Amino acid sequence: MNDLLEATSVAKKFGDHQVIKDVSFTVPKGTVTVIIGPSGSGKTTLLRGLNALERPDSGIIRIGDVTVDFAKLRSSRNGRLKSSDRELIRRYQARSGMVFQSHNLFPHRTALQNVTEGPIVVQGKRTDQANDEARELLTKVGLAEHADKYPSQLSGGQQQRVGIARALALEPDLLLFDEPTSALDPELVGGVLEVIRGLAAEGRTMVLVTHEIRFARDVADQVLFIDGGLVVERGAPAEVIDDPQQERTRTFLHRLL
Ligand code: ADP
């Protein structure tokens, strides 16, 4: 079982709008998958589906040893999931960590406290152990000297790197990034991409939504081009980005490159 993630026939609609139609793909362990596509094509909805932040209507997704068949989840009369399914979703969500477009850090906690919150509250780690690990993670993302600063004392790029350290602190098997640099001033983008590149070099399994096509070409093992809620093209960057087979992919890339 070399694939860490296996998504089969994932579908999601909002009202009458079928945003994700029938999406299947796999992510081998230790590889980077980049999702590209026009605005509104369903990239974020798909990514959030992988973490069940937005629950797909149907489809089966396996991450590591946890599989969820979304059509089979059962709700009680009050609309909440039955407790056994809530537990399944909790285990499923623990397999991945999400880095959002804008960091949403706790403003009244230091960088260090933002990183230790999850391990202490969710995983019940001891504070001294959580602090040691958080300092290591902040060093990894280049923020060793900023551990005791508050978010308002950090640049947007530094805040985003705290967000990455915070996701790493929960030791997920899979890291998900939703346009991690699109809210940043251009001069801050490079530092965040550098951190992501370092994680790729460490062999972390990641799925990223990004408009940074050149970065995608560098870092991705696999590129998914999505349009209208469907995977139009999927392959290595040398195929999808440098030699796209579909007209829709070509048109999209022409506008960006
Ligand atoms: P992308 O990330 O490719 O820009 P999204 O996944 O954000 O696309 O959105 C795809 C479509 O789904 C858009 O038309 C968007 O308006 C719609 N959509 C996304 N989230 C919601 C929601 N919570 N409720 C209703 N419509 C939504």
Automatic annotation (TrEMBL):
The keyword Magnesium does not apply. Keywords: ATP-binding, Cell membrane, Hydrolase, Membrane, Nucleotide-binding, Transport. SMART domains: AAA. It is found in: Cell membrane. InterPro entries: AAA+_ATPase, ABC_ATPase_HisP-typ, ABC_transporter-like_ATP-bd, ABC_transporter-like_CS, MetN_ABC_transporter-like, P-loop_NTPase. It is a peripheral membrane protein. GO terms for molecular function: ABC-type amino acid transporter activity; ATP binding; ATP hydrolysis activity. The keyword Kinase does not apply. Its EC number is 3.6.3.-. GO terms for cellular component: plasma membrane. Residues 5-253 form the ABC transporter domain. This is Cystine transport system ATP-binding protein. It comes from Flexivirga oryzae.
